[in-house]
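Hey all, quick one. A colleague (J.T.) asked me to put the zinc ion job into the tracker so the inputs and the structure tokens live in one place instead of scattered across chat threads. No bug as far as I know, just bookkeeping. Sequence used:
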Amino acid sequence: MLKDPSTKYRAFAPVRLSDRTWPDAVITQAPIWCSVDLRDGNQALIEPMNLERKIRLFQQLVAIGFKEIEVGFPSASQTEYDFIRHLIDNNLIPDDVTVQVLSQSREHLIKRTFEALKGVRSAIVHIYNATAPVMRRVVFNMNEDEVLQLAVTHAQMVKDIAAEAPETRWTFEYSPEMFSGSELPFAKRIVDAVTAVWEPTPEHKCIINLPATVEHSTPNIFADMVEWMHRNLARRDSILISIHPHNDRGTGTAAGEFALMAGADRIEGCLFGNGERTGNVDVVNMALNMYTQGVHPGLDFSDIDEVRRTFEYCNQLPVHPRHPYVGDLVFTSFSGSHQDAIKKAFNARGPNDIWDVPYLPIDPLDLGRSYEAVIRVNSQSGKGGITYLLEHEFGLVLPRRLQIEFSRVVQGVTDATGKELSARDIYSIFREHYLEAQKPYGYVAHHLVEDSTKDEVEMSTEISVDGRAQRLSGRGNGPIDAFTHALSDVIGMPVKVHDYHEHSIGSGADAQAVTYIELSVGEGRTLFGAGSDANIVTASMKAILSGVNRALAEQSGTSDQRRVA
Ligand code: KIV
Ligand code: ZN
């Protein structure tokens, strides 16, 4: 890289538009969308689409709801020509969809373009020629007047040939190619000259497409350029201003949005930003940005994964996992604090509340995605995600202090392996460390005698101690009290219960009680045990044994927690 890039590059000149209005504008309605996937997108592919892929993508675009679709550049190749003929000859274009085709402003190409369209019900014929000074000077060696004459001649040609086929509803479109790099007064002059030929009316408008063929400037400057054209073009009421941003600076979406605010009526772009070099503007991104502002874009992405699959198949290009709204990871939070906030916001949400969930600008359900991916657990995650997954996937509602305790166990595993854990992995860890912690002391059976006159119960229990059966009995003010008394005698240390939580999972005959008991053994620290069973008393006894086993393992230095650490 150069020490001083100004010796090689110059800053893009801003537009003198001190009374610009677009910064205060708000997008309140959807523009006319035109997909250029089958033309601009296709011409940017390593392997352009064959007929079968083109048809598949066309049908997907129709299903999404595009009413204008640029289907190709029929004079450029036989495949393009054949595809358009295939659509027309097989009646594959729905009545409410207009196909668009592109041609350079050259006589033989325009004639071939009209041949490709013979018999079509409705079509947009889109012609272009470059207007930027660098192209006039270096490529065509033409002055402004000569370039203008070229545009006018071919605009007239399009009009004359179209008049020979009045059975088709024709719309004309003109692009001053490289508008983004052209002088505004010249862009206006040439567009005015073209529209003077076409004589559009408010009832039958023509389309003036303003391409950011290459994105040269910050998006505010592009918006100024569009607002300048919007204000200065002749016959404005008979023109649809279309924009066609490319994404060379990575701000195609911003440029597209600002240009709509600046007066554009229509937008040309591609799904997921495919297209020449860094792509055309991403119409999915633009449409869903609108949706998150409460404006329906008129395009349907309620099964966004299906759209992505078609896109990937037809273009043979992957969609990046971080791609807005569609990437595999875009609805996922690994960070513990994010997970915690999301979990709380979900719990606080009422059924008709406005969407206001931190870290999730859109409800994944609206796009056919599930909440499954929202919270994923790796070494960056805290208790929020772990608890959320256990609760949502397995119905286990851990008390708060157990959440903290268990998250340390999980953290030990993620730190040791460096891997992400699925909900099932987390559940397995919980089973292993809590529900199945039944050694050396394991539950076998119990018999409970309640004496209501004495407010006391008598409990006889059978447990296994290192695999050997042992009977014990005890009394207390309830089953837990009676069992811990008996157990304290067996292990030779007092077992003290500090807290108790219980809930059920499932209903009817399949219902299971899950019990979490916080206890301490002897002088050891307080920790949790957990047990589950169809019988609530049995679940509690298993939880006590789980806690006691965990406490003894910790005291003898053999706990899994320490091994992992
Ligand atoms: O990017 C561009 O300028 C184009 C034109 C042909 C419209 O694709
Ligand atoms: Zn383009």
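Adding what we noticed when we looked at it: The pocket of zinc ion (ligand 2) is lined by residues 40, 211, 213, 244, 246, 276, 280 (CB under 6 Å). Residues 144-163 form the longest helix (20 residues).
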